[in-house]
Amino acid sequence: MVDLIAKPRGRRAAGPPPRLDALAGYLETKPAAALQADNISAWFGDRKVLDRVSLTMPAGQVTALIGPSGCGKSTFLRILNRMHELIPIAKLSGEVRIGNEDIYAPGMRVTDARKRIGMVFQKPNPFPAMSIYENTISALPLTGVKASRAEKDFLVEEALKKASLWDEVKDRLHQPGGGLSGGQQQRLCIARAMALTPEILLMDEPASALDPSSTRRIEDTIAELRGEVTIVIVTHNMQQAHRISDQCAFFLASHNTPGVIVEHGATEAIFNAPRDQRTEDYVNGRFG
Ligand SMILES: Nc1ncnc2c1ncn2[C@@H]1O[C@H](COP(=O)(O)OP(=O)(O)OP(=O)(O)O)[C@@H](O)[C@H]1O
């Protein structure tokens, strides 16, 4: 019997926790992992949209991918969790590693990569008729874990707390996820991703469909998750990139050439002392 209480990770639910034997391997300490992309090129059919992009996304940090529309940010993000390969005409070359593990290695199953790399999309996409509770743990079957009711209760509370949603929904966990506001639905999607205890969380413009106060809640949630999970976020909002990220990568695809990273580095340097004129122009809103 494994007692998980001895090895907590993140914030824990209040009250006496249940024994969590079924979740032992699941909840055990998994520190945030670095993500490394090397020489990533991508195509849709014959059209090359990314050209030899390399980027280190340090463990526990927030990396923002910025750049004008169509320069390949979302494509790059989808390559990081093997979603690109779902598109029939899509191809790619290069390597993506979590720690030392190549997520495209022949032995690595897509589901294994997805368990370690959560994703949140631009439009909140909870299952609308499914309860908040069931939404939160809807990806649990992917893990093969057979959790007891008490274990599920624990996991739901834990994940909703990580997504800063618990206090707002704890009294209506069995109501439909579709009944939440847009911002709450997006935090439910973050909870659903965090319920898989990922090492990496990818976010594709997670606040672009939300009002300013919901956007702020998402940013606060990202700040809370920093350190516990490695976050890679695509955003068009330069103030947001500045507020929430530790480092930025500026993507650009000029004159129908494939997207490249023009410059990357610490967020303060990208905003206050960029090396490339194009970066300076972009972060100051002169194009894009
Ligand atoms: N499914 C697809 N089929 C064909 N081409 C695609 C597909 N998805 C994206 N593209 C093309 O790949 C290029 C990069 O698109 P991508 O969505 O990655 O850019 P982006 O920087 O994320 O843009 P945005 O900021 O507007 O979301 C674009 O030229 C786009 O038209």
UniProtKB/TrEMBL annotation:
GO terms for cellular component: membrane. Transmembrane segments: none annotated. SMART domains: AAA (SM00382). The keyword Aminoacyl-tRNA synthetase does not apply. Keywords: ATP-binding, Nucleotide-binding, Translocase, Transport. Residues 35-283 form the ABC transporter domain. It holds the Pfam family ABC_tran. One of its GO terms (molecular function) is ATP hydrolysis activity. Signal peptide: none annotated. GO terms for biological process: phosphate ion transmembrane transport. Coiled coil: none annotated. This is Phosphate ABC transporter ATP-binding protein. It comes from Nocardioides marmorisolisilvae.
